[in-house]
Write a structure and sequence with these properties.
The structure is a homotetramer. By secondary structure, chain A is α+β, with helices and mostly antiparallel strands. The first copy, chain A, contains 23 helices and nine strands. The first copy, chain A, folds into two domains: about 230 residues, Hypothetical protein af1432, CATH 1.10.3210; about 150 residues, Growth Hormone, Chain: A, CATH 1.20.1250. In chain A, helix 3 crosses helix 10. Chains C and D meet through strand 1, helix 3, helix 10 and helix 16 of C and strand 1, helix 3, helix 10 and helix 16 of D. Chains A, B, C, D: This is HD superfamily phosphohydrolase.
């Protein structure tokens, strides 16, 4: 039988705390899950440093990737079949793109990307198109199948309906992670009626739309998303750990540039330091590797690297205060000066971090972030943009919220064994 | 104020998916949580290799330790106060013992203990009594406090009621892990009415007992425990991963004994190989470290070490068949012979693994495992052993169940590129 | 289009707390739900007097009937199609039988059946075969369809597989009520993994069987059932209310026999009193009607009827003590005598009530209650009776448990304004 | 011991699906629950006609009243003690007011109040102050205690903090019903983190306030409330049943005014018809009584009463279309005319029903509905009105949403056996 149509003799299931079971019938999907590139996602946490705030948030991207697949599977197997606008030939492509959409993520992606100028989306494409086990499986389907999967994930595929299943303001990716992250952190936000959303989803040529009767479930989803961003994803303790992690990477890179001799050689980091990472190098990285180095580096000579690694490993994080960069520019300069005088390098120990979110937006052509709006399917078959029907969504639509905080090591500043006068001044400014 | 009575100015809470919140008011507890020895538990999974079967089971021992503490906190703060038999001076000791009871666990404890002759209970004691941050905190309470905590965990403390809170057939340890492991794996077993159990718990001089009116909740707990053992803890896929992990450790040790030259030097393993592990060595171990080596060893020369590490990292596990060691002894010998002839070392690739559990037992003096029975407190204040009142518990009491399985690499045996005739014979015997 | 195949233009859903949604596509099912005989089930509580113990247990038989339908729908639409042994022509019949299986239940069935010699199964048959809206719908399918539905419910239909879906030791009826009653009472028993049970169900010529791999889910179901019986269904407070209700009916019947002149005429009861209930009379009964009379009868002259109704309406229930009818026969006679002397009629105020349950049984030919065993489908396609494979089920199989209690009005006996000496004696015997 | 301080020898618990357990230690509370006026709440559904839309919504006001009590109990026992602003002498008063706040509700209150000019708040006061079992219990506490309880419920008590526990924009009443109604209907709205809300509640002289750190939990509560209003409380099917119920009452009153001779005498209604209801009359009413009459009236001569009762009992409800009373006034007049011509009385069969909600409001002095705002307690101990801090709440604050629908019997209008031309015209206007 044709590989693309080949089914397992017996359905395989994964026990999943969020969707109860993840069901696999397609041999292609089963084979993809077994590849080493996909298994590697087990060693990368879904929420990076959040486990230091929410101790339950230790779940991996493997976990989430199966979940996104399962949601798309339900859509393409239970909701779309037989409806106009849906081309059933796109089924397997949709499933593969859902499963693999996060494949290029590395350990603590956000920090690594920033410091080493990486782009996980590029790696996703490279894994799918390169010399990998994943590529081999996809290529068995057809010669151009890997490219199609890659295009869906890169949002350049010409059937935008397929893209919208995994990349839009309401898609399987977000639906899974909101619920999953809520489950593992244990917060009571993140709940919405996914069953209902699936029931009211309809395929349209351009994108997925939602029957008007499900508008309240869509509203609820948007509110959940909003709460999860501010309660979980932007939690200041998580940001504090992220700040330290970023500074560790900066410091290691800086030391390397200055020909510092590491006690424990950073073999896995050389190509990163030189901005010359190959796919092979990249695939060797995972959180176990990174944590291994951080632990070893607790014994380095360099005081900053050593201290920051110690902080990360043992969760001695930075404290924070609210900070308004627009109004408090001078305060920041003054603190920088005082930190230097106190012998605390402000480049590593005085950090402004900002979080910003736009809960929903309709389409604003020409703006930086063009976001496809959510459409409601009215009884007369007309489409209407969500915020025109929903008072609540209208109220928050397009309203960006940004928070800034200033992070610093409170223990250093409270340690009066050196420079007590300067530190007193710092404390007065920080009001701690 | 006395350190042992010192309270935080504001209660701290941890969001916990199982107990909703873990509450900390005591400074001693807060300080213990912040020690590096306790934070290290974040890097050790509660269920070892189970995450390869249940992808949600990525939660750490840190997670569980807080949970046990929270259950004991509810008992000593909400249930016991004011009841005869309870000495409120034991409160802090109970809380510390609960929090620290698993402190000595290392990465994949079960396998490491077997191969390297370690004992995590010894390490727990050493951490509590040795030169550690945990010891420093406990010693601030009083000079003999570390010893008392250690005795409670070692079950030698003279107030056996305190011991029974964390080590008996129904204790805070089991109550937490059954619920927690059920939550993170997503299985529907593991549920019982802990609220009710807490409500009917009563202190007695010897141990915790349960009011007769809560008997059904106790029964339910025992059934949950039984199901979790067979459905989760002894799951054959988990056992398969455990078998491979144990064999990796064996192989590395064997290679070291034979002066094999590792490409990637096993620095963290030397003292293990020589059965000379110090506390300092031990505390450096965690799952990140171990996984780091396993990944590096995928590139070793030694074919067996390389293959086994590859299997573990990429989840290419062994298959299994039921096996009765009593009746099928000859079959096993024959398979060993055939494996050797086929060039597959049976010491590493043909493994019998047994799981065995006794769901509940009353007291059988003189027997190998003397287990304290569960007592019901009758209306007339008499105590009666559970199985005398509960038909269901009586039915299963003392009935040990044991399962044996034979694990092997199905891919090797199905690969007919070498020794096809022998492999055919192996397959016939294994009925695969 | 043929009525039996007719589908609604759009699927209808009922929001259901247990199954999330109940889905209806078949016009026949939709029409049946709309009949007045089915709507009448809204006015009959699923758990009779249990709401006086568990205040959440106010759910109706309408609720449960939809649930049983939904479970069977999932079996015949998602699990059975395409499997040998399943005749898809039986689909609609299975759905209708599931929906209608409790149709003949009246208000507080158990008590009414006992006192007035009714049989709800007869009424179910009469409603299905008689001149009713339900019959009219079923007859539109085909002339013999009502008879077939009736036979499935009466367990005389020749396809025993269809019968086993709703009447066996593990069927859709039990699966729904255990979960539903647990949900509405709020108890933590009653949970089992129905998703898994549905996944491992297989049709066989004789009956539904379960794949061996699902054995633990079956065990869990049996334990849930056991706990629900003793924790909820046989709860002594519920039994106390049931005892009073039964005595009210007895008293009213007795008064009528004795030509007592009711202040409030029992129009709805006349045919009951005379054991001449027609279907028309029966269908007029529901719990609102009965409660109406009980409220009115609080103002009757007859002291016993008045008192019992007052007790039921205002939840002034009887107290109880354990009672062993075999050993304590004399005690009972003595109490009867003393009650009479104290002017408290023992026929109404001293009641022995017994509860008895057999958690599971294999087939014992010739015995009173022949129960079809649960079969496991082994890998070699052989069937094995559950208790031969499951240690736990074997341990409890065939073990009947019976509890007896003696119910009485404690307030009467504690009221020493009359016959204090006799009452003191009664209290001594009852140990209250 | 003083009655107000008297405790039960053993705590009593009610199993509750929402709060797990409701705990009672105070004898006063236990005695109140046992009164016949409180037990009567078992016979009045919390959500009136909603059970005809959501079949799980069969829970009673008894259910909810215990829940409100339990939330207040947690506040006054676990959260407030020891905090400035809280007078512990108000504890019992708060508990009693919480338990009894809905005591005066009758069957289907909304419709009854409208048609018969009743006010359930008056009845609550009358029950508490009149010659009732409830009054007797309260008066045992102290002579002025009934009056104080009554004042708290009537919002005239001078300690407004106590009032705010059960009557404010975020109080125990709303917190219970949102969760409870969500649980029993099974909808996925209505969830918010009550545990967190309770943790951040603080007593202030004027009212309960919430620590700033809990702002997101408050936001979530407000969104839940919004969704529950539109998804559950204002559900058009529920409104349809309510419309029919109101029209039944109108019709019966009208018939009585016109000296119609009822086949089944409406004994319980006479005082209602004459707007002369005494407390005694009122307490005899409950839903069983009302449903009894509706069933009997299905056999009345009057075609309208008979038809409407038949519709209500058998759930043959009115259909509806959107309707804008401002713009579609002429359409309505035309329909009225056509209905009359078709022989369908528009007074009973063409009904405009409006639902309107204000999700949150800050204080607008002088406006019709002065609502106390929700205050956040900032770190500097200042109070700030919620909408000034919360973007989301600000966005919806003060925005009233109103929906209007037109209800009518679609079956009548589709029945072309009489006046087919007129009915065709009606259908064209209604677009059905």
């Amino acid at each position: 039988m044709e590989y693309s149509k080949s089914k397992l003799s017996e359905e395989k299931v994964f026990k999943d705390p969020v969707h109860r079971y993840v069901h696999v019938r397609d041999r292609v999907i089963w084979d993809l899950i077994g590849t080493k590139e996909f298994q590697r996602l087990r060693r990368i946490r879904q929420l990076g440093t959040s486990f230091l705030t929410f101790h339950g948030a230790e779940h991996s991207r493997f976990n989430h990737s199966l979940g996104v697949y399962e949601i798309v599977r339900r859509i393409v197997d239970d909701v779309f079949p037989g409806r106009p606008g849906w081309d059933k030939e796109e089924r397997l492509l949709s499933l593969c793109a859902a499963l693999l959409h996060d494949l290029g993520h590395g350990p603590f992606s956000h920090s690594f990307e920033k410091v080493f100028h990486l782009d996980h989306e590029n790696f996703t494409r490279e894994i799918i198109l390169g010399d990998t086990e994943v590529h081999a499986v996809l290529a068995r389907v057809s010669a151009d199948f890997p490219k199609k999967v890659s295009e869906v994930i890169a949002k350049t595929y010409d059937n935008t309906l397929v893209i919208s299943l995994i990349s839009s303001q309401i898609d399987a990716d977000r639906m899974d992670y909101l619920q999953r992250d809520a489950y593992f952190t244990g917060v009571s936000y993140g709940h919405f009626d996914m069953e209902r959303l699936l029931r009211v989803m309809r395929p349209r040529e351009e994108q997925v739309v939602f029957k008007y009767s499900g508008m309240h479930a869509v509203e609820d989803y948007i509110m959940s998303r909003y709460q999860m961003y501010w309660q979980v994803y932007f939690h200041p303790v998580t940001r504090s750990a992220e700040v330290i992690l970023t500074k560790i990477l900066h410091r290691a890179k800086e030391l390397h540039r200055n020909h510092y001799s590491f006690k424990h050689e950073p073999l896995h980091f050389y190509s990163l330091f030189q901005d010359q990472v190959t796919l092979e190098d990249y695939l060797k990285l995972d959180e176990a590797i990174i944590l291994y180095y951080f632990q070893m580096w607790q014994e380095e000579e360099d005081a900053i690297l050593k201290d920051l690694c110690h902080r990360f490993v043992n969760r001695h994080l930075f404290k924070y205060v609210e900070f308004d960069p627009a109004k408090e520019y001078r305060k920041h300069s003054e603190l920088e000066k005082l930190f230097k005088e106190a012998g605390i390098d402000p480049d590593y120990y005085l950090v402004v971090d900002s979080s910003s979110d736009l809960p929903y937006d309709f389409y604003r052509p020409g703006e930086e972030e063009e976001r496809l709006p959510i459409y409601l399917l009215m009884k007369n078959d007309e489409l209407r943009e969500l915020s025109r029907e929903s008072d609540i969504v209208d109220a928050i639509s397009g309203k960006r919220r940004t928070d800034h905080k200033l992070y610093f090591p409170a223990d250093f500043i409270q340690d009066d064994s050196s420079e007590p006068a300067i530190k007193r001044q710092i404390r007065r400014i920080l009001e701690i």
